[in-house]
Amino acid sequence: MKLLNYCSILFLLQLIIILGQCHVGLSLIANNPFATSNVNLKNIKGTTPDGKYLVEIQYSPEQASKGKVTFLRIDLFDNTMNNQTRLRHVDCDLIIEKDRSEVFKLSSKYGESLYHSISGTFLASYQFNETGVYIMSVELSGINFVPIVPVFVSFIVSITDNETENLSISSAS
Fold first, then answer.
1. Closest CA to 106 of 156, 141, 62
2. 42 and 24 share a domain?
3. Taking the C-alpha atoms of 105, 111, 114 and 115 in order, what is their torsion angle to the nearest 10 degrees?
4. How does DSSP classify residue 7?
5. What is the pTM of this model?
6. What residues pair up with 131 in beta bridges, in sequence order?
7. How many whole angstroms separate alpha carbon 156 and alpha carbon 114?
């Protein structure tokens, strides 16, 4: 009986430790604007240099500020003949650079060289800790399990101290 009590206490302590470590992750899930329907989202679109693929980024909060998490939803489309069809099984990545130095790469969070999006949509979040200009690029490297020559769609992200517009994302092309 003592052994059972001891094991139960050990199990509960481990559970408390794990839940404590998940607090930050759970708060990100709870604050994710894509989980609610009453949030204003901004979006920006860009195409690959050849116009074949379209990338749409929705982001929130509208008035993001330095030091706060910005949530991103990236949708990937085939843009052939301006007939936008969602891409499936895309090997892709989201890369954020500042001063020509990589500060974030989505696939690195998972220990992979690329991120695989089954549905052509993926969610990411990033906390811009400094003001300045960032380059946010979406890389497409494979579609429907077929590798392609990597193509990029880039966006310019400006983070300022201006209270009315702290975050500005525009197409780099």
1. 141
2. no
3. -90
4. H
5. 0.76
6. none
7. 22
Q: pLDDT tier at 24 (50, 70, 90 boundaries)?
A: very low
Average pLDDT over residues 38-56: 88
CA pair distance 114, 107, nearest whole angstrom: 5
For residue 34, the SS3 value is helix
Phi and psi, residue 28, nearest 5°: -65, -40
CA triplet 136, 162, 38: central angle to 5 degrees?
70
Domain count, the chain: 2
Domain of residue 47: give its range: 36-171
Predicted local confidence at residue 57, as pLDDT: 93
Residue 129 carries which side chain, given as an amino acid letter? N
Instruction: Give the CA angle between residues 57, 58, 60 to the nearest 5°.
Output: 135
DSSP H helices in the chain = 2-21, 23-31, 106-109
Distance in angstroms (rounded) separating the CA atoms of residues 130 and 108: 21
Sign of CA dihedral 69, 75, 76, 79: negative
Tell me, yes or no, whether 6 and 44 share the same domain. Answer: no
Share of the chain above pLDDT 90, in %: 49
